[in-house]
Amino acid sequence: MTSVHWRRVKRHWQLYLVVALPLAFLIIFNYVPMIGAQLAFRDYNPRLGFWHSPWIGVKAFRLFFESPYFWMVIRNSLRINLYSLVIGTPFVIILALALNELRNGLYKKSVQMVTYIPYFISTVVLVGLMEIVLSPNIGLLGHALKSFGMEYPPDWMSSPTAFPSLYVWSGIWQEAGYGAIIYLAALSSVNPELYEAAKIDGASRPQKIRYIDLPSIMPTIVILFILSVGGLMNIGFEKVFLLQNSMNLGASEVISTYVYKVGLLEANFSFSVAVGLFNSLIGLVLILFVNLVSRKVSQISLF
């Protein structure tokens, strides 16, 4: 660094100090942990330590690829995430557009509050509520069906076919209100003159949504879609693990729960890191690919 650069740093040291703190946080918590990725290629032994554990190459990756559960956990993870992406994204957009059309301020705030509150419910409480409602023996729905003469109500909590829907729709109920805030923020930046011009031209509400609102939030939709595709192989551990039981295991065993059982409970740390690294690489490839396609098709991209 030349003397000119040092003089600039000295002159604006306050600005560099402001940048230094978040930069240090980024390096310590985002870049330094990347050193741990080498555990995927080591037979990690806590007694030998991080640097002295023997190298094993790609053995941990091979164990994952050759596992009889490999295709099952990949299929389940993709199915649940695609289901959530295909159903959840349009639902959130429609909710935001509907809220944006409300003109009664009190009613609009009330609806926003009702849809936003579930986001603050913890995962444990959410699964407990699902048990209270859907359990065939103690659940409200089970008691209601028994009162109508059904002796053996269906056990949705243990059904493999019902598991993806339970996971996705409970997630939509919990997170749709929070997700709509991003689109509402984008809609708030729309020029009011566009609505006035559309009103003069006699445009109906559906036409305003189609020709003004949707094009205005399309960049936001594309960016969030790209980020969602990047996490297509990742699925939250807590709710899946809490909803999981021996009856629905064929549909609920995903990568995160499989890694927990095989990698952590059996103390196979190298296996856990290898699967995590595999997920990260797949996510990176998906983000780069979708970002490239989006830039070619719509001129909208992350970078």
Description of the structure:
- The chain is an all-alpha fold.
- The protein has two domains: 1-31, no CATH class; 60-298, MetI-like fold (Orthogonal Bundle), CATH 1.10.3720.10.
- Helices cover 70% and strands 0% of the residues.
- It has 14 helices and no strands.
- The chain has helices at residues 3-11, 13-31, 59-66, 70-101, 105-116, 123-134, 140-147, 163-187, 192-200, 205-230, 237-243, 249-252, 255-264, 269-298.
- The chain is flat and about 75 Å long.
- The two termini are 29 Å apart.
Task: Count the beta strands.
Answer: 0
Series of secondary-structure elements, N-terminal to C-terminal: HHHHHHHHHHHHHH
For the record, the CATH class of the largest domain is: Mainly Alpha
Which range does the strand content fall in?
A: under 5%
Integer average pLDDT: 87
Task: List descriptors.
303 residues; mainly alpha; MetI-like fold; 2 domains; 14 helices; flat
Question: How do the strands and helices of this protein lay out in sequence?
Answer:
Blueprint (H helix, E strand, L loop, with lengths): L2 H9 L1 H19 L27 H8 L3 H32 L3 H12 L6 H12 L5 H8 L15 H25 L4 H9 L4 H26 L6 H7 L5 H4 L2 H10 L4 H30 L5
Helix pairs in contact: 3-14, 4-8, 4-10, 5-8, 8-10, 10-14, 13-14
